[in-house]
Design a protein that fits this description.
There is one protein chain. The protein folds into two domains: 87 residues, Urease, subunit C, domain 1 (Roll); 345 residues, Alpha-Beta Barrel (TIM Barrel). The protein contains 13 helices and 18 strands. Strands 1, 2, 3, 4, 5, 15, 16, 17 and 18 form a nine-stranded mixed beta sheet that branches. Strands 6, 7, 8, 9, 10, 11, 12, 13 and 14 form a nine-stranded parallel beta sheet that branches. Helix 3 runs parallel beside helix 4, helix 4 packs across helix 7 and helix 7 packs parallel to helix 8. It is globular. The structure holds N-(aminocarbonyl)-beta-alanine (URP) and zinc ion (2 copies).
């Protein structure tokens, strides 16, 4: 009987702290030795000196979810996790989304029914709360937090989803009391509505006007307001999918004051601009997401914030809609920018884009890459050290990277169900060639080898001081200490 199930030999093992040359030995899905692995294994892989990184953790993913406008995502838990794993991501945290009037408990049950038979890799859930009723706030949410759903997303915009500032304060106070984390989509709803109304009135309905209606100041104002609300109740908060210079500065300043504010950005804000929405007819809808991509100056601000640790996590915000009447363009060529489904796909290309544009171009280092792509996600959302790192006792979720592999992105080579990629034709250098999930070699030589339903549900735990965050955010050791505390 071999001592191990798997040994990866001759690896350059990268974590947030260091690069170690050696072997990784795996038994029962868990890393059981790192260094010089003596003993044999059922299977050996020679990494040939390539980097071996923690499998990515993508903490902002929409799969099998209906948008606020009632449009179903193009990816379910099979195609979504298939796309994830081909891109080096081995854990996803999608949303269980409550629409108004729904029981949160029932919503969670429904998402489990979707995920259980289909997921190829492990997953947790964030909740989306659009209806913080007395039942939700008094019973369902506290019980769900205890059951492992410890983070929830709140919208400040979208008619069907947005909560009032008063409701957000209630939710923040509850999060503080229970030790949970509130994620906020920060855009000023009325500013967007007002601009959109006047644009449409004047016949400006093409996709490019989406980027004008979702003005930078709308993101800046809402970010500032959200942080002020968090400050009032001394609750932690994470601002999702940030795109904009002033909003990023607001986060940086809040953190300098010692506020427990965390922040996320996404591939679309390093790799796309508003010009991408300016295409004939309604084709620009393929690049439509909220907040919209901005310009090269905003991209530079995003890179600066990735480098200096203002951003803790780099997530895909994979929001997949096909370019047809059941997806992006419900009214075909007549679809106005107000009616387009918001969101772009990015699960599979998240890590290659960050590696190629970030590490290869010297904007961030390898350790920051690991922190931003895996470790900080696991720490923030209560999955560390099981996920997000390479350590004895952690799940053997690994990606062997060929840092010299040049790939020209073609949707036909990707594994989602979207039908297009906003990054078509782009060249990236660096690609995960072998991907391992709990010791199973799930992607190798471009082939998938994982059973539908083999992904497992992960319960998140509420953060505590014993889980300091990574090098990309040095001051977060202190900030991560948001244990449960009653407000009153
Ligand atoms: O445009 C986006 N980002 N759509 C997805 C839903 C969301 O707000 O994250
Ligand atoms: Zn959002
Ligand atoms: Zn999203």
């Amino acid at each position: 009987m071999p001592a191990y199930d798997l040994i990866i030999r001759n690896a350059r093992i990268v974590t947030v702290e260091r690069v170690t040359e050696g072997d990784i030995a795996v038994k029962d899905g868990v890393i059981s030795a790192i260094g010089k692995a003596s003993g044999d294994a059922t299977r050996e892989i020679d990494a040939g000196g390539k980097f071996v990184l923690p499998g990515g953790v993508d903490s902002h993913v929409h799969v099998a979810q209906k948008s606020g406008m009632g449009i179903m995502c193009a990816d379910d838990f099979y195609t979504g996790t298939r796309s994830a794993v081909f891109g080096g991501t081995t854990t996803i945290i999608p949303f269980a989304a409550q629409h108004r009037g729904m029981s949160l408990r029932k919503v969670v049950q429904d998402y489990h029914q979707e995920a259980t038979p289909k997921a190829l890799i492990d997953y947790a859930f964030h909740l989306i709360i659009s209806d913080p009723s007395p039942q939700v706030m008094g019973q369902e949410l506290p019980a769900l937090i205890k059951d492992g759903y410890t983070s929830f997303k709140i919208y400040m915009t979208y008619d069907a989803l947005k909560v009032t500032d008063y409701q957000l304060l209630d939710i923040l106070a509850l999060a503080r009391k229970e030790g949970a984390l509130v994620m906020v989509h920060a855009e000023n709803h009325d500013m967007i509505q007002w601009l959109a109304h006047h644009l449409v009135e004047q016949g400006h309905v093409a996709p490019k006007f989406h980027a004008i209606a979702h003005a930078r100041v709308a993101e800046a104002e809402a970010t500032n307001r959200a942080i002020s609300l968090a400050r009032l109740v001394d609750a932690p908060m994470l601002i999702v999918h940030m795109s904009e210079i002033e909003a990023i500065d607001t986060v940086r300043q809040a953190r300098a004051k010692g506020l427990k504010i965390f922040a996320e950005t996404c591939p679309q804000y390093i790799a796309l601009t508003a010009d991408d929405l300016d295409k004939p007819d309604v084709q620009g809808a393929m690049w439509c997401c909220s907040p919209p991509p901005r310009d090269s100056a905003a991209q530079e601000a995003v890179w600066a914030a990735l480098k200096d640790g203002t951003f803790d996590v780099f997530s895909s915000d994979h929001a997949p809609y096909q370019f047809n009447e059941g997806g992006k363009i419900p009214k075909g060529l007549k679809t106005t920018f107000k009616e387009m489904a918001n969101g772009v796909p990015g699960l599979e290309l998240r890590l290659p884009l960050l590696f190629s544009e970030g590490v290869q171009k010297g904007r961030i280092d390898l350790h920051q890459f690991v922190a931003l792509s895996a470790t900080n996600h696991a720490k923030l959302y209560g999955l560390y050290p099981r996920k997000g790192t390479i350590a004895v006792g952690s799940d053997a979720d690994l990606a062997i990277w060929d840092d010299k592999k040049d790939v020209t992105v073609r949707w036909t080579d990707l594994h989602d169900n979207v039908g297009y990629t906003p990054y078509e034709g782009r060249r990236v250098t660096g690609w995960p060639v072998t991907v391992i999930s709990r010791g199973r070699v799930v992607v190798e030589n471009g082939t998938l080898n994982a059973e539908k339903g083999s992904g497992q549900f992960l319960k998140c735990v509420t953060p505590d001081a014993s889980r300091p965050l990574g090098r990309a955010a040095p001051e977060m050791t202190k900030m991560a200490s948001f244990g449960a505390r009653p407000l009153f």
